[in-house]
User: Fold this.
Amino acid sequence: MALKELLASGKFVRIAELQPPKGNNLTEIFDQAERLMGRVDGVSVPDLPHAIMRLGSLSLCVLLKQKGIETIFNLSCRDRNRLALQSDILNASALGLRNILLLEGEHPSLGDHPEAKPVFDLDLMGLIGAARRLQEGYDLSGNPLQGKPDFSVGAEIRGTIKGQALEQELAELEKKARLEVDFFVTDSIYDANLFEAFSKQVVPFKVPVLASITLLKSVGMARYINQHMGGPTIPDSIIDRLMKAPDKREASVAIAVDLIKALRPHCHGVRIVPLGWEGLVPFLLDRLGT
Assistant:
């Protein structure tokens, strides 16, 4: 069943993120994808995540789709001008993809090619507008298309902010909703109480929300996120739980399962981000149950 239909049905949607390889050997990622079949409703493929050069989202999404897996093509503003962004949206449609997640993208200085020049010809709102315009049958210059794409369009949002930042985020959400975004995907959520408060503010926009759950690999990773990422905050209770656990992988899965169960009443589904621990995702999903 297509993602749009699943979200409309009220089913709690489970999406797993699979990072493309740094190369063109797809044996491992195909094996990971096969172990997810029947356990997830789709696979999201990031677009050069963390500004690290990898195989592209577009090709991997097409190859996974050929294996019968529902995919979410990710497209960021970072690396392409408006010509290439529009062209890649058309490319994805021509190749049969039907879900797209639009992102700002991290600055290249954070990745493995820090000398790379960023583009950001369009910001995220501009990219959402371009996708909507293409679906109406026109490009950004108003030229008519010979055939138009039909996508379920998603956009990333911040899901555990408060204060003035929350007010700004809600104003952005309203603009995205007016551009008829079909679903939202949050950044990583570690505090269920903060997300519950945020989710109540999102209800008036009537757009399904998928909460992102990232597997924490270590206490060091958790502390780094809190000190340097400037986004989601990891509660001390989770850090203490991870610190005391003899098996960090088992603890990471258990924390993710508990978070998903706590978030479930307040969102329409989850995106599981394993960050190299893709082999744990089937185990996590089995622990989560139906």
Observations:
- The first strand starts at residue 13 and ends at 17.
